[in-house]
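May I ask for whichever protein you like with its backbone structure tokens?
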Amino acid sequence: MSAAGAPQSADIDPAENRRRWQALGVGLAAAFMTLLDISIVNVALPSLDRALHASPSDLQWVLSGYALTFGLALVPAGRFGDARGRRNAFVFGIALFTVTSTLAGLAPSPTWLVLARLLQGAAAGIVNPQVTGVIQELFRGPERARPFALLGATIGISTAVGPLLGGLLIALGGEEHGWRYVFFVNIPVGIITVILGWRLLPHRPRQQADRHRLDPVGVVLLGIGVLLVLLPLVQEQQWRTPWKWVLIPLGLLVLLAFALWERRYARHTTPLFDLRLFDFRSYTLGSLIGLIYFGGFTAIFFIFTLFLQNGHGYSPLIAGLAVTPFALGSAASSAVGGRYVNRLGRPMVAAGLIAVVVGLAATALVLREFPHAPVPWVTAAPLLVAGLGSGLVIAPNQTLTLSQVPVPQAGSGAGMLQTGQRIGAAAGIAAVGSVFFSSLNTNRGNWTTAFEHALITATVIIALALVAALVDIALGRRQT
């Protein structure tokens, strides 16, 4: 198995080269919009709660329902794009995302909003594997580093800047209707992206292998397995019964059945996901690093937003501004990571993880040492360090993980990578959130102590990703 089919920059004329970078720009805009909706809603929850009289369960599903259906759609959508054309899947996904964003913004009740968010998450899951697949298709070998760097920057910035943009939109629209602007902002961007995506994304005749069936049994098994694993994680605060955790081993058994089915199915035709991708150490350990890192990375912004707004009474706008240093650091270092990832490889990812761990540990330390200082000021420098490290993790890790994935499996390979990231994010939010709320109850409402404990938990999770990176480095040196 080897990557093939993408043009080298030296093999194409300037007009075609410009067109593929324009196609990448459209894909990045779509990725930013869909990933932004994971974090932007956090700051809108208090005003949304007051406007719709939503229950805690409703609010949980507004957040977690999006992530749940996002994760369920990734691999089937990636395989569909591989087999039937990425442009069609991309345009359909963005059109659906735009429509469901409109429905969410118009929601008259919590139930309406939850249903709209479920559909919106599925649409996001359709779009994102196509973006990575387009990079794999249009760029080859070392030249993929820069597009993946831009994609990594997009992922990091969209997650970190979501609270800031949400705060700005709520300030613009007011407490009663500002939360609707959080969804309406997607409409003009979505319309433009649909038009440009149809014009610029590659549309090529299907190859012989692409006429094979889309493996419906594999789709069902993977969907049930991921659903069983994710449900108790996203509902951790709402389902108080300990029996919910039984769903996770059941889900793992279903995923084992999926793996056995895929191995058997691959003997006759193209499977939903080619398990031979895990023969590549870069893909296996890179996917593990992504899963663990997103478990700590995503949870940070969830608890930080609660800490700032509910614990210290900061406005949504100030809460958003407080995470801006992380976003700026991530954006700056992503460009550097994209330039040097092919030269430095996995050690760059390890260095980034070390910087994230140091930055987060320093954040917890300054909050303990300066308990009465303004939180956004004292956390700015350590969060900048963590952001600089994050930019050296997400993009380079994605580049290295997908470097050996053949173009015909680009969508499904990227979909499985992102599915792991979504599972990691859900598990991280559940674990870190549980520590946060338990500490809050134990320490009689001491928000600073609760945040410190949760932040330390997130830091430990990210340190585990560092261990996986170091293992990859050691194995690589042993083979040379």
